[in-house]
Structure of starch synthase:
Amino acid sequence: MEMKLSNCLPSQKWCGGGAPFVRQVNVRFYPPPSQRLLPLPASGKMRHRNFSLQNKRQQTKKINIERPDADLQSSDAVDSNTKNMSKQNLSSSNQEISIKENVDTLTEAESSEEISYLSVDSNEEGQPSSVHLQDLIGMIRNAEKNIHLLNEARIRALEDLQKILGEKEDLHGEINILEMKLAETEARLRVAAQEKIHVELLEDQLEKLKNELSSSRSSEENVLHVNNSVPLSDNDSVKSLSEELDSLRKENILLKEDLQALKSELTNVKETDERILMLEKERSVLESSLSELGSKLAASQEDVSELSALKYECKNLYEKVEHLQTLLAKATKQADQAISVLQQNQELREKVDRLEESLEEASIYKLSSEKLQQYNELMQQKMKLLDERLQRSDEEIQSYVQLYQDSVKEFQDTLDNLKEETKNKALDEPVNDMPWEFWSQLLLMIDGWSMEKKITKDDAKLLRELVWKKDGRICDAYMSCKEKNEREIIATFLKFTSSSTRPGLHIIHIAAEMAPVAKVGGLGDVVTGLGKALQKKGHLVEIVLPKYDCMQYESIKDMKALDVVVESYFDGRLYKNKIWTGTVEGLPVYFIEPQHPGKFFGRGQLYGEHDDFKRFSFFSRVALELLLHAEKKPDIIHCHDWQTAFVAPLYWDLYVPKGLDSARICFTCHNFEYQGTAPASELTSCGLDAYHLNRPDRMQDNSANDRINSVKGAIVFSNIVTTVSPTYAQEVRTAQGGKGLHATINSHSKKFVGILNGIDTDAWNPASDNFLKVQYSASDIEGKLENKEALRRLLGLSSSEIRRPLVGCITRLVPQKGVHLIRHAIYRTLELGGQFVLLGSSPVPHIQREFEDIRNHFQNHEHARLVLKYDEALSHLIYAASDMLIIPSIFEPCGLTQMIAMRYGSIPIARKTGGLNDSVFDVDDDTIPDQFRNGFTFVTADEQGFNNALERAFNYYMNKAETWKELVQKDMSIDFSWDSSASQYEELYNRAVLRARTASRS
């Protein structure tokens, strides 16, 4: 529907009033192309059924309606001796409404086309000859669209009819106003006629006065007579009469103009009546069109019902055809088999015939030649035996000669290989006695030379590979020239830029945390632990981190700033970034320090800022810019959680076109509770196209169309997506566990996998832990009792009963961790005769206050202590001292606490969820093999379920001392290292790289 409105001002002015405002309204109704009815498809081999209805075209109607606006003004008085009469000038505004309506019905849009139905031809046996199911489905869909369009056309027609009826009522009101004004005009005409008669009388009187003045000007009596009749002097009388005559003439002219205007208005009234009649006709036409539409709709509904029946019948026929085709295929196969059997039989018959003929011929000579034949056979057998003996003798002699020659050659080859291996071993044997910090320092030094343009990228690549392999030559070269200046060291290293073989993958982790320098939760442990495990497997692993002002700088070795500046786009301009390098736990790390006025990473904390979305989207882009600037060609870029989830879309949208295209992207979400959502407009700050990415199949948040979700974007744009345990990977596929992303995860399930995290067994090792009072191991657990006494003395707990069980809890006090069960555990442990120690704090104010009250309540209690802070040294001692450790989490993606507890011989009491379900197995569960049972579990997150597990643990500890000792030793022997998890990641990496290389070659 199209409506055109235009305003115009008339040039005509009416007496006593300004120009009236006239509106011209042109209303046209055009059906949009998208609402035209579509023809149903028809097949040339099918019979057509035409159910199209007759079309009607409505003529364009144009209706002009003038709406007068009353504008009455008073005119001047005609005579001072007569009464004042008020005049009202009629000013009307013309409004022209042109309605051009084109009612598109079922047949108006496609008057010349036929809508075909599908019919099924049958042969005499009732079997279908051909069925075009696709055409039938298209017919049904188009019929449904046509019904929908018919309903819309009917609704529009009713709305148009209502508008016309409203306009008709307005016109009736305007006609009434015009009739009232017409009556007023007639009254004014009557008054004007009377005034005209009065003027004519005055003109006669004036003529008489002139005659009398000319005839008797000298007569004073006549003058007096005239003065008596007209009480004015001669001159005054004539002047006043002249003025009155002029005014009457003007009034007459005005009255004539009013009469003319009134006539034109009457003409308009007649035209208005004609328009009303036209509108009445138009209304009747619309009503008939509506009735026609109703009948067509009813016919369409009947046709749709017929289509449904045909669809069902077609489905049955199609099934029968498929069955017949199956039978035909079987029959064809059987016929082929029968033909082959007949052919074989024929061949056999021919062979039998030939044999029979041969037997008949042989029977003739059988009797005469039987003895001769036997003699010949004996002689042939003897000759054959002699030949075989001679042949075996020759073969044995030849084999001895060949064996001798092979032995001589093998000895010579072995001797040559030993010489070559000895020579190569002296040059290429890896040096394993140097720490990882040494090789990481060499690697960072070479990368610094490359970024500072002191060596070429090709030379840097070759030198990195030598360091990667722990080549003894480069180690000796560095040790021999490390006291020299940098130029001489570079010259020495460039001597080794010969071809080298690549030992493994190049993996770069981009993360917001790394233990121990910048750690808030388990993410930091994963980055460090997984990186070290992959490094031990021979892969080159590098880490990219923000340079926080609150890092533990004492854990960074050889930290220095590179003499290079990396520029990165943000908020419409380029910002410089300073690059630092250092080694952490033997891993090479790049620290990015933005030169941004917002001081993104100089806030005194890692997270919790109002602009976290901007801070980490900025960091993600700079990290990729660093890799591009350093001309690195990694095989895997591994990003973690929402803070670096931006890496995936940034890599594919912006950096692959720039040449950083060698890597596959791996994304690990450690907790789907945190997804990094923000208004879509904020995505443009880091250079991504919000309009392009704010779509349901890309980064648009599943619960809000105007927000983007960075975790969803990483799932969509990554080649590998992992989470931190197999059970959690299944939980997040549900609506409750996925926190709104379950649909996205399920749609990308082929690249989604759960891998259980490991722990750093070097950092968490009771046999070498310097935080403990006494070190101990699985083979000697007596030191655990001494650490228990040390913790009691440190916290002021009672040491009167050595066998009193100590229950520990080390956690963040947040709802996820089951704080209501932790609170209950304190009281229930004391009721059962145990001791309880809690280490942790809460970012939630009311939870922190609640546990502060509990701490104050037990401040002087001899069996309970609450330490509401994080203390690294104390956590190690609690792990070693506790007999049991509780983990009653509501949900737990992986959890490292239970693994560390078992490493230190503290038996876990855990709820079966997430990674806890994958690592803790109940000692009383007969469905689990005995060698895997390692703790106590419960299912429901309530006090009853927790009590059951806790009481069973107390029963084992108090009444089954030997069984408890065996359980402690078994738990301490379980391998929770990163080796197994790293192998799974290694397999995922290799498969992704292999697929990429295969696709590249193809």
About this structure: The radius of gyration is 52 Å. The domain at 781-976 is CATH 3.40.50.2000 (Rossmann fold).
